[in-house]
Design brief:
The chain is α/β, with parallel strands linked by helices. The protein has 11 helices and 12 strands. It has helices at 29-41, 57-65, 110-124, 143-155, 169-176, 199-205, 241-245, 250-266, 270-279, 294-301, 310-320, and strands spanning 3-5, 12-14, 17-19, 46-48, 76-81, 83-86, 103-106, 129-134, 159-165, 181-187, 209-213, 284-290. The chain has an 8-stranded parallel barrel, surrounded by 4 helices. Strands 1-2 form a two-stranded antiparallel ribbon. Strands 6-7 form a two-stranded antiparallel ribbon. Strand 3 (17-19), helix 1 (29-41) and strand 4 form a beta-alpha-beta unit. The longest helix is centred in the C-terminal third of the chain and has 17 residues, at 250-266. The two termini are 37 Å apart.
Length: 324
């Protein structure tokens, strides 16, 4: 798998990254092990984890696989800090919320960031993360404090490179002016091109490399929702159904139809075409793609060798252009 330099740093990562957010929920430990081995054997290096994935189960599964199954030195480990569970607010009638449906709170104070970083390192059995992301913007924490915490984490050696997740362009620019930010994660796909207006240019200006998240738009760009909602899909899951179905509009239909046409002509899958398109966008160093099982991961890895003809890339640009 091709390795790319991230921004203006010396960090090199595989241009497809393995997301582990399904591990411990939709992917069990055995399937996760098979995925990780296949990913590394294909030349993949970038692996993303978080203590927030599956209530911490994903990170624990990854910890069990490091060392014995896959060498820590073969991976570029990406982690984050700044999110924590919090009770959901009371319901409208004043009754307590369901205890098994917690919310997610944001806290990027020095205390929380360093505590979560140290716990992640301890759990993974490593002395450093290759990339450590501030997981979200926190308006309650002074930016100087966040920047100083990033500086401390890098200077102490616990973090090799720092990044941000889900920051707007002005938030990214504000922090990058104060701290050594190398990576920015942002949702980016044929159905989510808003990052091109501001975040991508801001990242380029500050020498920050982009990692695209949700490059398949929750599975919509695989084409699996063309004829309805499969029973085993995220669109059928009560927790994510509204989000997925809300994006199945006329524009999504046009984009998916174009992907299917391109895939038929290239003898590949719509998934591979969608990933090849985002992979080749200016400023994108890599993308995080999750897979429920080895079959899905095999389809993802097939995108690595696909080169899109210019005419097809241009056609996808046109059909996915936003009209607002």
């Amino acid at each position: 798998m091709e390795q790319r330099t991230v921004g203006r740093s010396g960090l090199r990562v595989s241009r497809i990254g393995l997301a582990t957010h399904t591990w411990g929920s939709r992917t069990d430990a055995e399937d996760a092990a098979v995925q990780l081995v296949a990913f590394v054997e294909a030349g993949g290096t970038l692996v993303d984890t978080s203590p927030a994935y599956a209530g911490g189960a994903a990170q624990r599964i990854l910890a069990d696989l490091l060392g014995d199954l896959v060498s820590r030195d073969d991976l570029v480990l990406s982690g984050c800090a700044g999110l924590h569970p919090r009770p959901a607010p009371p319901t409208a009638d004043g009754t307590p919320p369901m205890p098994q449906v917690p919310g997610i709170g944001v806290d990027t104070s020095r205390r929380t960031l360093l505590r979560q970083l140290d716990r992640t390192l301890l759990e993974l059995g490593t002395d450093h993360l290759d990339i450590w992301h501030i997981a979200a913007w926190d308006p309650r924490t002074p930016l100087d404090e966040v920047a100083a915490t990033v500086e401390l984490a890098v200077r102490s050696g616990r973090v090799r490179y720092a990044g941000v997740r889900g920051f707007t362009a002005w938030q990214l620019a504000s922090l990058a002016a104060l701290a050594p930010i190398t990576v920015a994660q942002a949702p980016y796909s044929l159905l989510a091109r808003g990052a091109e207006d501001d975040t991508v240019p801001a990242a380029a200006h500050h020498g920050v490399g982009m990692i695209a998240t949700a490059p398949l738009a929750g599975g919509i760009l695989t084409g699996k929702y063309r004829d309805g909602v499969p029973a085993d899909s995220r669109g059928a899951d009560e927790a994510t159904a509204a989000e997925i179905r809300g994006r199945l509009d006329d524009r999504a239909t046009r984009v998916v139809d174009a992907l299917v046409t391109a895939a038929d002509g290239l003898a590949t899958s719509p998934l591979a075409v969608a990933l090849a398109w985002i992979r080749d966008r200016p400023g994108v160093a890599s993308m995080f793609v999750g897979a429920r099982d080895i079959g899905q991961l095999t389809g993802v890895l097939a995108a690595e060798t696909l080169e899109l003809p210019r005419a097809i890339a241009a056609a996808l640009d046109d059909v996915s252009a936003r009209t607002e």
